[in-house]
């Protein structure tokens, strides 16, 4: 739990107030109320891990120096930019996937009177990121680098989403397309950049670093993002719903999950046929057959081995980094996700 959580939440209220009184637009009472409600519904409801990671990473880069109020505020503002970006992705993602719930409540587009206005709300959330950066970082020497970073990461995430969507086009359920390189590519672009690299990159820019000098850090964080998604895929099937907070549906949804890719690798011909016949069907018996096959192939053991090897590989890569402060940032990220249960 970040020591800065309560401060972080205060900054949300302040940023929201600024956006609701943005001089570039003449708000009516109705439009201000709409945006106010839309923000509260979509932005602060998650675990806030990505946003809080900016402050935690920045503090580690400062190697124990006490952060000034201004530094905490700026790191929080960048953290919220990531949470805003995440909200933008999720609002539109839920429409594309025709999802029902998000974070334990109906998806925003399913709220009465919202519907497809949610598309415009998503675009507005994206624009808010630029407004926040302009309001608080325009005078900073790294302003252009920040804009460049957010634009780059948004492009990478959107491209990752595209690969994911066109791989599972309706009516074209073809398991033979699924492979480990495809899984890694989807994860790298759809999740890795904005969830793992972006918070650390924000902290590095605030600390006066040039991101071009930190490609090794980017690569380690992307590998961490892939490891994190493999855990997610594993927990979707083998995690307990009470612990992970949701009922996994990757099998029914025909997801390019690490488990199905591994199952295809390890199956004999008969098992492959069983997979092809039952994967991607919203039928309890079909799902049960796939899960039985996963157990028969000992995917729990295969995952345990993958997890320990990934951890060793990541630690080795981190420990060759010349900066102790950067090592501390990367190790703190890894500690948060290693052997997680949810």
Automatic annotation (TrEMBL):
CDD domains cross-referenced by the UniProt entry: Trans_IPPS_HT
Gene3D superfamilies the UniProt entry points to: Farnesyl Diphosphate Synthase
Alphabetical keyword list: Cholesterol biosynthesis, Cholesterol metabolism, Isoprene biosynthesis, Lipid biosynthesis, Lipid metabolism, Magnesium, Metal-binding, Steroid biosynthesis, Steroid metabolism, Sterol biosynthesis, Sterol metabolism, Transferase
Listed cofactors: Mg(2+)
Pathway annotation: Isoprenoid biosynthesis; geranyl diphosphate biosynthesis; geranyl diphosphate from dimethylallyl diphosphate and isopentenyl diphosphate: step 1/1; Isoprenoid biosynthesis; farnesyl diphosphate biosynthesis; farnesyl diphosphate from geranyl diphosphate and isopentenyl diphosphate: step 1/1
Any one Gene Ontology cellular component term annotated for this protein: cytoplasm
Pfam families per UniProt: polyprenyl_synt
Gene Ontology terms for molecular function: (2E,6E)-farnesyl diphosphate synthase activity; dimethylallyltranstransferase activity; metal ion binding
Single GO biological process annotation from the record: cholesterol biosynthetic process
Similarity comment text for this entry: Belongs to the FPP/GGPP synthase family.
Record function comment: Catalyzes the sequential condensation of isopentenyl pyrophosphate with the allylic pyrophosphates, dimethylallyl pyrophosphate, and then with the resultant geranylpyrophosphate to the ultimate product farnesyl pyrophosphate.
Protein name: Farnesyl pyrophosphate synthase 1-like isoform X1
Organism of origin: Cucurbita maxima (Pumpkin)
Encoding gene, per UniProt annotation: LOC111480625
């Amino acid at each position: 739990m970040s020591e800065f959580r309560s401060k972080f939440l205060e900054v949300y209220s302040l940023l929201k107030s600024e956006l609701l009184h943005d001089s570039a637009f003449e708000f009516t009472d109705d439009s201000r109320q709409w945006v106010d409600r839309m923000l509260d519904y979509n932005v602060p409801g998650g675990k806030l891990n990505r946003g809080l990671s900016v402050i935690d990473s920045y503090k580690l880069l400062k190697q124990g120096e006490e952060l000034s109020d201004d530094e905490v505020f700026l790191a929080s503002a960048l953290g919220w930019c990531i949470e805003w970006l995440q909200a933008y992705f999720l609002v539109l993602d839920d429409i594309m996937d025709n999802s029902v719930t998000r974070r334990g409540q109906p998806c925003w587009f399913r709220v009465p009177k919202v519907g497809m206005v949610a598309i415009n709300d998503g675009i507005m959330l994206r624009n808010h990121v630029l407004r926040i950066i302009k309001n608080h970082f325009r005078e900073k020497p790294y302003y252009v680098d920040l804009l460049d970073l957010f634009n780059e990461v948004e492009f990478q995430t959107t491209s990752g989403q595209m690969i994911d969507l066109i791989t599972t086009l309706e009516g074209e359920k073809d398991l033979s397309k699924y492979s480990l390189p495809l899984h890694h590519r989807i994860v790298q672009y759809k999740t890795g950049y904005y969830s793992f690299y972006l918070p650390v990159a924000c902290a590095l820019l605030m600390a006066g670093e040039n991101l071009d000098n930190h490609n090794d850090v980017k690569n380690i964080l992307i590998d961490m993002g892939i490891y994190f998604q493999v855990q997610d895929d594993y927990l979707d099937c083998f995690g307990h719903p009470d612990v992970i907070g949701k009922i996994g549906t990757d099998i029914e949804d025909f997801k390019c999950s690490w488990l199905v890719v591994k199952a295809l690798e390890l199956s004999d011909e008969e098992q492959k046929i069983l997979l092809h016949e039952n994967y991607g069907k919203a039928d309890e018996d079909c799902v049960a057959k796939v899960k039985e096959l996963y157990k028969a192939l000992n995917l729990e053991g295969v995952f345990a081995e993958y997890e320990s090897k990934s951890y060793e590989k990541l630690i080795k890569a981190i420990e060759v980094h010349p900066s102790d402060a950067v090592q501390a940032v990367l190790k703190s990220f890894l500690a948060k996700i290693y052997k997680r249960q949810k």
